[in-house]
Amino acid sequence: MFIERAHSIREVHHHLELFPVTAIVGPRQSGKSTLALQMQPDHYFDLENPRDLFRLEQPQLALEKLKGLICIDEIQRKPDLFPLMRYLTDINPEQRYLILGSASRELVTGSSESLAGRIGYIELGGFTIDEIRDRETLWFRGGLPPSTLSATDADSILWRNNYIKTFLERDLPQLGVQIPSSTIRRFWTMLSHFHGQLLNLSQLGESFGITGKTARHYVDILESALTVRLLEPWHNNTSKRLVKSPKLYIRDSGIFHSLQAIESRDRLEAHPMLGASFEGFALEQCCRVINRDVYFWRTHAGAELDLYWIGPAGPVGAEFKYADIPRTTKSMHTAIADLSLEHLYVIYPAGECFPLHEKITALPLSDVPERLR
């Protein structure tokens, strides 16, 4: 089954018009190669293909006479190509590069200076709710295409378990991670218990029997591989004492459910982390739509806001509630006053869009792409 990702296609076309090099970064199996092939590149190199890797052993000879759109997949395997791409695009305006990497922009580029001013980045995660209308399936299985599009939930679970194994045993070592896969697996599983909570590295390290510094290193590995999101706190100029630790989320809801051994939808409904699961899923969907720097906000007195960003008209906030009918709280009104919010959305699983207050709207998750993009 093929799902056309129209918004991502438009985004890639726009970047190709603006930059000589466009990078699509995202986790393994998120659909980067499929999206790139829809751009109909004139030349395609897959660095996991030994033949293509051999062709690029003398990269300048292989690339300098090419014209048109050149796609290089799994670019993190040859970071030495970046200075060459800078040179080639400077002397040959007929060349455009579309590079794909299964890691964050820092790991993909190796050195941000190499292509400064010449490269645009697109982060491609799994499917979104405007691409997959069956929200329940997308939430339970996650957005990675082979998992989302599996014939059955059982097939999806089997695929995800093998994906986790392959990611730990093959993908991380290719990124230079020299930590036993069993250690990272146990750590990743432990992290899933902190999903949606403040990251306390000392507590995390103590629970795992390592130092806080080592715990930070492990978190950084998983964050750089785009499997974990660290949501930083927003610090405004109020006199209130603000929380300074980031919040941690497992980015793909299906992977989160596998790490938590949630193997059926009925089990998810009865699980104590049901609310946290919905929060992480909804937050990730919002981040994909908003496509801006996002934060959370929390004071030591207990007022908090799950998501905060600066929109075109000013500051905007969102709260995530797993409820049939969401209601306003004192904390929401505090956030509106302290952060001078233009509007606050209370995002809940399903229902109608309706006002809760002059500046607060109850928004079903299905309406997020239309209202927040």
* SS elements, strand count: 14
- Biggest beta sheet summary: 6 strands, mixed
Q: What is the terminal-to-terminal distance?
A: 26 Å
Beta content comes to 15-25%
- What's the alpha carbon Rg, rounded to whole Å? 21 Å
Query: What number is the mean pLDDT?
Result: 93
Please list the strands of the largest sheet in the order they lie side by side.
9-10-11-12-14-13
Q: Name the overall outline.
A: globular
How much helix is in the residues?
A: 40-55%
- Helix and strand composition category: alpha/beta
Give a structural overview.
With 373 residues, the protein is of the alpha/beta class. The chain is built from 17 helices and 14 strands. The chain has helices spanning 6-18, 32-38, 50-55, 59-63, 81-91, 105-109, 135-141, 145-148, 153-174, 181-192, 201-208, 212-224, 253-259, 265-269, 274-290, 330-339, 368-372, and strands at 21-25, 43-46, 68-73, 95-101, 119-123, 197-198, 228-231, 247-250, 295-298, 304-311, 314-320, 343-348, 354-357, 360-364. It has a six-stranded mixed beta sheet with strand order 9-10-11-12-14-13, with helices on both faces. Strands 2-3-4-1-5 form a five-stranded parallel beta sheet, with helices on both faces. A hairpin with a 2-residue loop joins strand 10 (304-311) and strand 11 (314-320). Helix 7 (135-141) packs across helix 13, helix 9 (153-174) crosses helix 10 and helix 11 (201-208) crosses helix 12 (212-224). The longest helix has 22 residues, at 153-174.
Short structural summary:
Helix content is 42%, strand content 19%. The chain is of the alpha/beta class and 373 residues long.
